[in-house]
Amino acid sequence: MYDLLVKNGKIVNEDSCFKGNLYVRGEKIAALTLCDEIYDAKRVIDAEGKLIFPGAVDAHMHIGERDADFEDVKTSTMAAAAGGVTTCIDMPLNLYSPSVLTGDGVMLKKELLKNQSYVDFCMWGGFTPESLPHIEEMHKTGVISFKAFLSGGGNDFYAPNLGEVRQGLMTIKKFNGLAGFHCEDFSIVNYEKERLLKENPPKSRGRQAFLNSRPLSCEIIAVRSIIELAEETGARVHICHVSHPKVAEIIEEAQLRGVDITAETCTHYLTFTEKDYLEKGCAFGCAPPLRDEKSREGLWEYVKKGVLSCVVSDHSPGVKENRSDEDKPAYKSGYGISGVQTMLPVFYDGAVNKRGCTPELIARELSANPAKRWGIYGRKGAVKVGFDADFVIFDSNKEWIIDENKLFYKVKLTAFNGLKLKGAVEKTFIRGTAVFEDGEIKVSEKFGRLVK
After folding, report:
1. Which of 285, 321, 317 is nearest to 64 (CA)?
2. Burial of 405 (0-12, 13-18, 19+ CB in 10 A)
3. Confidence band (pLDDT; 50, 70, 90) for 153?
4. How far is residue 77's CA from residue 445's CA, in Å, rounded to a whole number?
5. Residue 432, C-beta contacts closer than 8 angstroms, at least 6 positions apart
6. What pTM, to 2 d.p., does this model score?
7. β 51-54/2-13 pair status
8. Which of 118, 130, 406, 417 is deepest in the core (most CB within 10 A)?
9. Three-class DSSP category at 241
10. CB count, 10 Å around CB of 221?
């Protein structure tokens, strides 16, 4: 007898889609059959008319802070579960607590996540000048990839110079690790901001000034630098939050000549434009910034081609005061968008309903590809026999409007508020257990496990 049967649903993977039955025994997917092949199970769910997606793997998420007003591990991972995200890969930089820069830092963050997370999780480690001697130690302690800024960073998370990047890539190459980069050239960003402050202080306060301080050229220059170093060292690299098709084009050229490089974009770049930021406010602020409508549509083409092989949330919450420019310059307002709970339905609506893509694209970009790149495919990333029973029952016909007050975020603030969608997460299972069902979280905060 099986523990769970989900019958009559359309089972979607990155390379297939068929109507059938999913059987779970223990924590694993034990069998997949056609609809007329029925076996006994302790619990039976009829998913007639529904899609069954693999649980999403959000490869770029700032899970939460200790003692912070912004967000905590509990609320962000509850939101993840409600959004069909079953594995989160947590970024190493923290605003109110030490960043993950050493083996001890890994252990501290691991304990925090283990005691409070509702979903399974992996860990990024920091790639900074201070962390270079500790990279191998962090890898052995459980870190799955390493994150660097090329545009600076605050608190204890500083950007390496290109010489340090080169050294770090050679170290990471030794154990076939993965290095991820926030690709903006800090010298351009700082110069443009300082120039505006000196030449026209009133204009420097505005939202347009923020956009002007982060031109497309600073993203392109940074990406080209990383490609050159990856090509020389042979290291595996990943470009975070690509905002423009010209950047994707450069990445595609590198991929075609054999550079081991992947890249992601975010649901906010695929949904909004700079006009939203200029007209609606700093809740739409992000770095790199939103681009124009033509650029947004161009990004979709690179997602469909697979050049941008992952779509992520870059869930980065902030309090309302921090996302406001009413009493301070726009460049001093925090930037980052809360998006983990809405990532799957927003991407589905944009891809399938608005652009005619197949559901397989959703499984590829949100589940299979990130699981493969981060080395956890076979356990996560697909609805296949032997994988963890991580899956989402998705109602593709449900029409709804995102209401930030009904999301699980600690701070009820998201750029996606008010967006009309068709398609919603109905149930989320992790390792065979229903973690989200009937609009409620069904497990405790210690349910999540570290995935190496």
Report:
1. 317
2. exposed
3. low
4. 9
5. 3, 4, 24, 25, 26, 27, 28, 388, 389
6. 0.96
7. parallel
8. 118
9. coil
10. 16
Residue 63 or residue 49, greater confidence: 49
Residue 281 has pLDDT above 70, yes or no: yes
Instruction: Return the structure tokens found at 430.
Output: 């992790």
Helix (H, G, I), strand (E, B) or coil at 157: coil
Distance CA 211, CA 309 (A): 26
Lowest mean per-residue pLDDT among 1-5, 26-30, 282-286: 282-286
DSSP secondary structure code for residue 445 in this structure: T
For residue 196 the two structure tokens come to 């505006």
Question: What ranges make up the beta strands (E) of 165-312?
Answer: 178-182, 236-239, 261-266, 310-312
Query: Quick one: which of 439, 422, 425, 205 has its CA closest to 327?
Result: 205
CB 99 within 8 Å of CB 125? no
Nearest-angstrom CA–CA distance, 172 and 427: 38
Q: 133: which 2 tokens? A: 């001697």
CA atoms within 13 A on the CB side of 18: 11
At 89-140, the pLDDT tens digits run 999 987 667 899 999 999 999 999 999 999 999 999 999 999 999 999 999 9
Q: Which residues contact 86 (CB under 8 A, 6 or more apart)?
A: 55, 56, 57, 80, 119, 120, 380, 390, 391, 392, 428, 429, 430, 435
Q: Which residues of 350-365 are buried (b: 16+ CB within 10 A; e: fewer)?
A: bbbeeeebebebbbbb
Place of tokens 């223990």: 26
Task: Please say whether the beta carbons of 121 and 144 come within 8 A.
Answer: no
Of residues 212, 193, 211, the one with CA closest to residue 201: 193
Cα of first residue to Cα of last residue in the chain, in angstroms, is: 31
Q: Tell me which amino acid residue 299 is.
A: L
Which tokens go with 303? 């997602």
* 163: number of Cβ within 10 Å: 10
* 3-state secondary structure (DSSP) of residue 440: strand
Count of all residues that appear for the chain in the document = 452
Spatial distance between the Cα atoms of 383 and 380, rounded to a whole number of angstroms: 9
**What is the Cα–Cα distance from 349 to 152, expressed in whole angstroms?**
35
